[in-house]
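Researcher: Batch entry, complex prediction.
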Amino acid sequence: MAYKFLVVDDESAIRELFTELLAKEKHEVKSAASAEDGWAMLEKEDFNVVLLDIKLPGASGFDLLQKIKAAKPSSIVIMITGFGYDDSLINKCKDLGCSGYIGKNMSVSQIMNNIKLFINAAKDKQIRSA
Amino acid sequence: MAERYISSDEFKAIIHKLNNYLFIVSGKLEIALQDESLGQKLEDTLKETCRQIEEIKEYIDHSVKVFLESPKQE
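Model: Structure tokens for the complex:
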């Protein structure tokens, strides 16, 4: 199934890479370089999934996650970080309601598989709570 | 030689940056490997490069584990 993704990451090479990887799987992808730009895009159009880097210039990924969940609690938001070892970060992501967490220390295929798993789990949860 | 220390935040920022670079390189290699017109020699080289990147990632993961398990200093 094809989804519409929004990738929010301040590194252009990471945005381009996710765009290429997800487009290869027939998904539609748009991207933003900051939490502020990401929020502006989310206000204008609907996305099925947001891939959100934690460490961003200005407002953080956590700030944007909170804002998204407050506006639309059923949103699927997957957090990404380059330092994927910190339990307190992972717990904070979960507490704020993200659908999953990926670290860039994982292999690319692992990351792509996890994204699919998190989306399916979030969809199942939405069906159960409907 | 006198010992020098870096803070946890500096260490995390370095690892964050390294993982970013490795993620970009390995992602590009993975995409290149899906190209069916690659010659066998180039395909072998890319696969070997991917394997080496995975080794670097494992080494980084191990180093982070050692760091996280080391005693904290004020």
